[in-house]
Amino acid sequence: MEKVKTGIFGLNPLLDGGFNKNSVTVVVGAPGAGKTTFVNQFLRKGLEEGQEAIYISLEENKDQIVAECKEMGWDDVDEYFELGLLVLLEAGGIEFSKFIKEDFPSFVNEWKGSEARIVIDPLTPIIWAEDNKYEQRSLISSLFKEAKKIGTVVATLEEHGVQGYMGGEEVVTPMYLADCVIHLKIVEPFGRMLSIRKCRSSWHSEEEHPFKIIRGPGLIVHRKPIFKSIKTIPADLKARIEGILPAVSEKDRRHIESVLEHISEEDMGEIEPKELVDYIMEEYGVKSAKPHEQSNQALKGRKKDSEQG
Q1: How far, in Å, CA of 39 to CA of 68, rounded?
Q2: Which residues neighbour 235 within 8 Å (Cβ) at sequence distance 6 or greater?
Q3: Where in the chain are all domains bearing CATH 3.40.50.300?
Q4: What angle do CA 244, 246, 249 make, to 5 degrees?
Q5: What is the pTM of this model?
Q6: How far apart are CA 152 and CA 71, in angstroms?
Q7: What is the mean pLDDT of each run of 10 residues along the chain (309 residues)?
Q8: What is the CATH number of domain 3-221?
Q9: Helices 250-261 and 273-283, interaxial angle, to 10°?
Q10: Taking Cα atoms as reference points, which of 38, 88, 97, 33 lies closest to residue 59?
């Protein structure tokens, strides 16, 4: 099964490498759980890798979406919109039945087979706007089916009532129709927790995993047992990773530096600084070097730069 990287640091190994290509993942959570941050990271990862991205918004407008991205450290999101690599479909305030049955299929015909990344944020208004359960299922099924013709899809779904119940009317149908379901919740006293409820045709973790949301890297899944030692990421994190950067491409180096730019003073909670570095390197396909290896790599990188200069 071909995989698509999620863009979430620490998550890919829990899904046996990432999302299944051309699948639909539904991210369920209460307001403020981190759903929008999740999908924005998914889109950003695709754009970094040269894929196109489509944001189908059923509530917010472009200004709100851009503001949320920048709040989490995605500072160059405007550039992707301007270049036409990130496309926004605003469907809020229109008749969802017409959009799904008429407008969206026409859009899909132009983008079919592009292997873009698609976000639908959120699905909830479709459910609220249609009382008939059969029509709800038909609309959501059609939306998923059409979107998968373009590429890999991640949709958000609001959870109301008791967190973790997952049996409310607003979540049952989308969860059933989705290929993969990820649940985000806040659990006292441990904080935020992520679990993978299902993932068709793929192994996945069956445990609950704590996660943090930090400006810069965004949502980070902690794959180690919960403990209460609270640490702050040291200001010299960039120096620790400097020796590894010469091993990646110039484009990936800029992306990594952008991620690290915002987190030198952030509270990392139960996540160790070295763990975050390992996750970043894992995401970009680089093994963390030992201290003496980092020094050698840094010297080689500077020598290479001077020769090119």
Answers
A1: 12
A2: 264, 265
A3: 3-221
A4: 115
A5: 0.80
A6: 25
A7: 96 96 96 95 96 96 96 95 97 90 96 97 91 93 98 94 66 94 87 94 92 93 61 63 82 82 66 80 72 45 49
A8: 3.40.50.300
A9: 150
A10: 88
